[in-house]
Design brief:
With 125 residues, the protein is mostly beta strands. Helix content is 0%, strand content 46%. A hairpin with a 5-residue loop joins β3 and β4.
Length: 125
């Protein structure tokens, strides 16, 4: 279920989607049970929900979910040079818990060798 979303500049809004599947059939199924996501930083057990938004059944498509993570919402947690994992912290699929499922990962100013000095600008080399 997890995918690497890439490396971003700090203070960026990161968007992504993931799908949940009914265990008995493998068909897409709604994420229920007051679903929520949290972000873990590097090797820490500290999680943050600051700046995290989850939309279940995005665009009325069953099982397709959308998230947005505004990394400018907490500059000390979402710091440059770090890796992050996005995890379901509450949720069920057809009454089966999916808590602890990793839905994506990203980094902030960690892996790209060249980047513009101002976020959102094009870099010419």
């Amino acid at each position: 279920m997890s995918n690497n979303l890439g490396d971003y500049a700090a203070s960026t809004v990161i968007y992504g989607k993931f799908t949940t599947y009914r265990p008995s059939t493998g068909a897409p199924f709604t994420l229920a049970g007051t679903p929520s996501l949290a972000v873990y930083k590097d090797n820490s057990t500290t999680q943050s929900t600051t700046g995290v938004t989850l939309t279940v059944d995005f665009d009325a498509v069953t099982g397709l979910h959308h998230f947005a993570i505004d990394t400018s919402a907490d500059g000390s947690f979402y710091s440059a040079g770090s890796n992050f994992d996005i995890v379901i912290t509450t949720g069920t699929v057809d009454s089966v818990s999916v808590t602890g499922s990793v839905v994506g990962s990203f980094s902030l100013a960690k892996t790209a060798a060249l980047r513009p000095t101002t976020a959102g600008r094009t870099l010419d080399v």
